[in-house]
């Protein structure tokens, strides 16, 4: 089954085309009100562990290893992954993140994991 997944910085304006907006960061983003976020859900439990997040530090040279380690965490986090897949069965989901790097962040890694891209 293919899912309609988008990835977007939470600082970008919400759009109707986003579908269900799900924040996938463990920490609430600075300067964003709950109203502006327009979330369907905040899934901090699906975010990388604090240890993994701190180890990665959004360093592009650690990206490949970060994805591998995060996938291993997701494999062990069956309940949260199943919950997110359940949302995806009902239509488009936009995974929201707060990192500055648009190519190397947990939402991009999570979208790849859900799409089966390794």
From TrEMBL:
It holds the Pfam family DUF488-N3i. It comes from the Bacteria. InterPro entries: YeaO-like. This is Uncharacterized protein. The lineage of its organism: Bacteria, Pseudomonadati, Pseudomonadota, Alphaproteobacteria, Hyphomicrobiales.
């Amino acid at each position: 089954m293919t899912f309609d997944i988008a990835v977007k910085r939470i600082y970008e304006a919400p759009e109707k085309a986003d579908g269900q907006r799900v924040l996938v960061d463990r920490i609430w983003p600075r300067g964003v009100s709950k109203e502006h976020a327009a979330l369907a859900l905040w899934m901090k439990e699906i975010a990388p562990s604090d240890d993994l997040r701190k180890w990665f530090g959004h360093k592009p040279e650690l990206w490949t290893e970060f994805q591998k380690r995060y996938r291993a965490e997701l494999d062990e986090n069956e309940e949260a992954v199943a919950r997110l897949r359940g949302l995806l069965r009902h239509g488009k989901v936009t995974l929201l993140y707060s990192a500055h790097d648009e190519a190397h962040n947990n939402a991009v890694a999570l979208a790849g994991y859900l799409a089966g891209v390794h």
